[in-house]
Amino acid sequence: MKKIVLIVMMLSVFINYAQKKNGTVYIEHPAIDVVHEFVKASVAGDRSKMASYLTNDFKAYNGTSTNQNDKGMDKEAFLNNQMVYHNQLDYYAIEDFPGSYADAIEYKKDNPDGEVWVQTWNLLKGVQKNTGVKIDAAAHRLYTLTKDNKIKMIISYGNGRVIDEIQSSFADRTNGTIYNHHENINTIRKMMYAFEKKDYDKAYSFYDEKARFLDSSSPTLEGKSLAEQKVIDKQIFDNYEITSVDVVGYPDYLHYEMGDARVVQSWWNINIVRKSDKKAIVMPIHYIHDFNKEGKIISELAYYNPKLLD
Questions:
Q1: 72 and 109 share a domain?
Q2: Which of 44, 65, 171, 304 is least surrounded, with the fewest CB atoms within 10 Å of its CB?
Q3: How many Cα atoms within 13 Å fall on the side-chain side of residue 98?
Q4: At which of 125, 145, 168 does a domain end?
Q5: Would you write out the chain's pLDDT as a tens digit for each of its 310 residues?
């Protein structure tokens, strides 16, 4: 019994020690009001009003920076940076991230000046005026405010990829090579004409066994497997007779630098006859086929008007 009491007492001491408080979190606080007003001034491009909320020794930091010697942006540099957003974005807005709200935290330990931290979660929105790049990115900020509710420091966390895309879009650049003759183009032609000749085993041999299939009438973007596509094709072949497959223009093979993607785009007129009433139908169709390095088709996207089959 003594042993049980001793264990309970030790656990009680441990729990009390582990749950030591270090301040208070507020959902409503004057510091939160200041941050909200500062954000409004930022979106409005009111530089002087923004400046009025910042201390003279204000500093701003990028929370994702790997620079160990980052000294941050001073007040003037930060204000200039905020004006870039206002001046270069149409439809500029900063909204609360859905389901989130700002918190104010007053720490007790190591806080002799009574500073308050405000943390926010936002969506930064806009369209860059020159490049047309759309911004709809999550952002997180930590604000440090003095006792008299002046913003002393901001640490920002955000998605830098969209900014990189804007910067890259100011200059023309290539992204690979377009071919009008290539082995992957040959594969598409052989596959299409194998279907025309009802040589289905050969036609399906050009696909990777894990290939996925989508078309313009697909209700989702998940795609179908090769086995599922074969079932769909059989239903079509049972009801329609392919009389000819004719290429329109010529296929393009695009080998992209970004992502090392390999894509053939092709345009066709598929001439079919409906078996039930012998009606002749011309089915224009556009295909986008992705290839792997081994020259197998790994995905197929087809654009056509399914009403032509009604």
A1: yes
A2: 171
A3: 2
A4: 168
A5: 445 545 555 555 555 556 788 889 999 999 999 999 999 999 999 999 999 999 999 999 998 888 888 889 999 999 999 999 999 999 999 999 999 999 999 999 999 889 999 999 999 999 999 889 898 989 999 999 999 999 999 999 987 777 777 667 766 778 899 999 999 999 999 999 999 999 999 999 999 999 999 988 776 667 899 999 999 999 999 999 999 999 999 999 999 998 999 999 999 999 999 999 999 999 999 999 999 999 999 999 999 998 888 7
201 & 74 share domain:
no
Identity of the amino acid at 16: N
Q: With 0-12 CB in 10 A as exposed, 13-18 as middle and 19+ as buried, what is 207?
A: buried
Dist CA 209 CA 205 (whole Å): 9
